[in-house]
Amino acid sequence: MRTPPTLCLLIWWPKYAMNIYDRVLTGAPGMRNTRVVSISLPAEMLEAAETLAKQENRTMSELMREALRVYQRERLAWQDVFTYGEANAKRLGIKNEQDVVRMVRESRRQRGNTKEQRAGR
After folding, report:
1. Contact 60, 49 (CB under 8 A)
2. Is the confidence at residue 4, as pLDDT, over 50?
3. Could you state, in order of their start, the residue ranges of all structural domains in the chain?
4. With the CA atoms of 104, 110, 116 and 121 taken in that order, what torsion angle do they form, in degrees rounded to the nearest 10?
5. For 63-91, what is each residue's pLDDT tens digit?
6. From CA 6, how far away is CA 76, in angstroms rounded?
7. Long-range contacts of 73-80 (CB under 8 A, 24+ apart)
8. DSSP secondary structure letter of residue 29
């Protein structure tokens, strides 16, 4: 079986392959667009991260980058939810939690009356 060309490139010319990788990521040969940082993790969390990285055949850096991407995506999604809620609260004149409780009670009371009216027919 013949080895795919990209695999040969990585095996036989790793320096050249890294330069191609750098050029694709940064547009400039041999220049990294990353910085090394140090983080502190509790022992259990570090062990879990190392296990996960090993299971997924990733480096710890790749795992941490992916974790940050997921966190950013989720944070943006929640921000959209909050923005939607704030816009509707403003439209409905809701200023605080007491307004929400009052509106829920009114809605339930109206639905209860409607159900009783249907049952009485």
Report:
1. yes
2. no
3. 1-33, 34-120
4. -150
5. 999 999 999 999 998 998 899 989 999 99
6. 36
7. none
8. T
